[in-house]
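Box 3.1. Reading complex inputs
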Amino acid sequence: MIPDLHGFGPALIAGTWMTIQLALASLALGLVLGLLGALAKTSPYAFFRWLGGTYSTIVRGVPELLWVLLIYFGTINLVRGLGELVGIQELALSPFAAGTIALGLCFGAYATEVFRGALLAIPKGHREAGLALGLGKRRIFLRLILPQMWRLALPGLGNLFMILMKDTALVSVIGLEEIMRRSQIAVTASKEPFTFFLVAAFIYLGLTVLAMIAMYFLEKRAGRGFVRSAA
Amino acid sequence: MTWEIFIRWLPSFLEGAWLTLQLVGLSVIAGLILALPLGIARSSRLLAVRALPYGYIFFFRGTPLLVQLFLVYYGLAQFEAVRESVLWPYLRDPYWCAVITMTMHTAAYIAEILRGAIQNVPAGEVEAARALGMSRSQALLHIILPRAARIGLPAYSNEVILMLKASALASTITLLELTGMARKIAARTYMHEEMFLTAGLIYLAIAFILMQGFKLLERWLRVDACQGR
């Protein structure tokens, strides 16, 4: 049942590794953006609420592919200008950097909503208890609120990560050598498009299954101490 | 000066937006029709009936749409039998490939929405229908499906918006829909920022109009009134 890969196996494995790196880098950026977005959206200042709301609405309303293109092709002048300011000639975003920014931006917009939901689900009494104990605002957030948000936000974030992993395929459009790009190169050489794209599809399926297993254990760990009582 | 360029290219953008709307409209409607048997079979109690739709849904939800598009558009040509079949004029055309792939893709997601909706129809209502002497198929047609439609509508409207965004991928198989058109115009004018931003604004506008439309539909079907158990 194993198809003849015409010696492109190692290239596909390298592509898979690139996809994993891109997904994890975008995840890191997206988590930070999502957390900032959620904080902005629940801020007491109207300006920050507006900022957070605008970010999540606009980013979620525009296709991911368009973000990838916009950030790769649309920022050439901007990035070059920035480079000249700090004295680097011909500064440009690599496809990896552009892909990370674009996918992180999209992940962050959806994660904003997930984190906001988790933030609002934490009982007010916990914050008040922290205040009563004389903890500072930052400490309350880092030691009381954030650890509890993690458990509530995890299922939503897991779903978003599966979507993110499939969206990494879009970065092949700007030439990053991940699974899809490697498969396209293999197709050009071997003239067997169906074989290689099907192999690519099964690699993505494998990655999704791995992510699902990881989520199962993460959720189990995050939910320890919260075993449902027999109703 | 820049405004002149926009006015000059506006008809092309509208042409692209029209193609985007066609792709989304056809795929979400055909996807819903395809999803009905899938979703019903998926929520069956028999493992044998459940297994096949489960595999279909798992494959289409677990792989990127881009891979699926390439499999259909580039991949099928690998087989002699496909190239000689009567369907080849359609499978050679990027437009029909995009419609077919997007339909099969969205059907998997809609089937899951339907399964959730069918399983969330209150058991008492199904029992009441059976108690009134309705057959299984009558209960399905008159009670379960209309009820499930209202439960699943908000999720379905989300899926339509997601498909609007996913339709941008059709540009990778040479279709000049909104994103493809923006890429073409950007390459002509060297105005990448402006053209991609314009396309983004048009997507936002379409998404906004669709959302308002679904709000009206929800009010017409009185979805809110049905949510209370």
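In summary: Chain A has a mean pLDDT of 90.
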